[in-house]
Amino acid sequence: MKCFHYFKDKTRSKSQRSAPILKDDSNFGISDVSSKDRVTQSTGSANSPRGIMELYEEKAGKLRVFTYTELRQATSDFTRLRKIGEGGFGCVYKGSIKPVDGKGDPVVVAIKKLNRDGFQGHKQWVAEVQFLGVVDHPNLVKLIGYCATDGERGIQRLLVYEFMANKSLEDHLFTNSPQPLLPWQKRLEIMLGAAQGLAYLHEELEAQVIFRDFKTSNILLDENFKPKLSDFGLAREGPTEGNTHVSTAVMGTHGYAAPDYIETGHLTAKSDVWSFGIVLYEILTGRRSLERKRPKEDQKLLDWVRRYPIDGKKFGMIIDSRLGNQYSLTAARKIAKLADSCLLKSAKDRPKMSQVVESLKQILEVSTEGSPSSKSFEMADDEPGELTEKTKTVDGSESSKRRMAQLAKLSEHVGGVSKKGFMIMHRAKVS
After folding, report:
1. Residue 220 pLDDT > 90
2. Of 246, 253, 248, residue with least CA distance to 269
3. Cβ contacts of 288 within 8 Å, gap of 6 or more
4. 98 is in an annotated binding site
5. 3-class SS letters over 13-41
6. Is pTM, for the whole model, over 0.85?
């Protein structure tokens, strides 16, 4: 059963005629719930008479329609040498396509090919086309076009995206390299960009979009390490006017899904906020939300970090050791507090993403003003015990120098003992 129909208006351009109208189908529809199941209030959708379907029909013409042959050529027949990623959807290949007008240099792209045996399947392909056909933001990956072919070779479903040269945040954050590939400041800038992308989806569109699978592998990085959210296969339209949540099957990634969503199946924008809090702790610690190879008590990131209170002396122990001293402890504490607010048990108590954006901007200002090497001074300010010990050490050193200077002056008047011998004796006493 197909889930889309092609435009048949011959007055439209080829791309517009071919753009699929994505329907809510019982088997392959973009939403896995009916409108009667939607029961919560959405800020983003409250004043909007139009949903994602209507917005897509209006904007679908901007997507480029490719033939399967074009994409085979673009990837050298999907050779393994061009494969740059793989997931539940299928494989992703690096390719190059001709510009729309056929002029100029080829454009480098990422081409995702649906694995027909994959569990995500056609429904997620439809979701990607629909949502990415509507959204437009610098922190969301751009969908250039798609291919939908039903022929002798079977059903072929492909998506063509802008190419992201630096892969994902996951690739850089969870590396085995002893040196951090992502410095402190860059980590904060990436999280700010990701937050701005979520805020756009939640609060700036006519119809609210809930991402539902926010995690490090879905934050792609361009050549300048600018972040862009990708993989909208699990995204869902937010609740309609007068409702407060969407009732839906629980989907996402273990370790990132909000507990209230898991327990009730009630999906809201605050489900994304919880996931964002998890990733904030991941960029602080350099550890995944769940690591089965660690001791049982340390496998869950949240259980581990909560043993080190934010205002306590040992808080610094959770910071990614690869950062060395190249971070601001003051800013790190603020990040942890922001993460905790995103991880509040009650969804309504969590901040909106627009509030998270403003908090991150302020933290970035604090982090930028203080040099990375000032970490030790920040620790001294926050931890009186360490300050006392350090002060004693410094004072003792200065006192020794003064005593040595006095002894040197006295030695000039000592009789019967050589100046050198006198200094040797008193050095031993001082030490």
Report:
1. yes
2. 246
3. 174, 255, 282, 301
4. no
5. CHHHHHCEEECCCCCCCCCCCCHHHEEEC
6. no
